[in-house]
Amino acid sequence: MRNLTGIIVLVLLFGACKTNNTKKTLPIYGQRTAVTKTVNGQQVTDTDYQTIPVFKFVNQYGDSTGSKDLEGKIYVADFFFTSCPSICPIMQRNMLNVYNEFKSTPDFKIISFTIDPKHDTVPVLKSYADKLGISGNSWWLMLGNRDSVYNLAAKSYLVAVSEDSTVAGGYMHQGYFVLIDKQKRVRGSYDGTDMKQVNQLIDDIKTLQTEPAPAAQ
A single GO molecular function, which one (predicted)? Predict the structure, then answer.
């Protein structure tokens, strides 16, 4: 009987150790290619993942900012316009939960790209930010060239945006919050109008924060 009890205890301990050592990892989205690299004098096959390309726009303070300012940071990107009568108010209200959770975290940012550069000038974006209660540099509202923003949305962040006179506000866009890691890779996409998915985003940001830095090559 003692031997049986001992075996049960060992099985339980092994199971507990196995559970504690299992860490959640997030998938990596986008295109990927196999590449051969030389590491420590040996040929190894590795995977190159699609990353967000270089961009440079202007934020609500009139500062020129872009991908260079996001190096080594986790961030969430979305696409909106200030006069949006449909999903944007819900999205930005939900994004405030993300902002309030991480606004004091130095290696995290939120980047909201306007898809209506004609109307959403720097003063308009600043007024919009003030109404939301955004301050500091944790959340940038970005103004850029229309074609550059639209291409960035579709090809890099995998979000569909377009001008559409048949919909309210004159623009169509998906309401995704896109999670980007410190290596500029897409790690998740969440419905910004669904608070359950936004809460999942918050949890996934915390998971990324514990992810080890890639090994130097």
Answer: metal ion binding
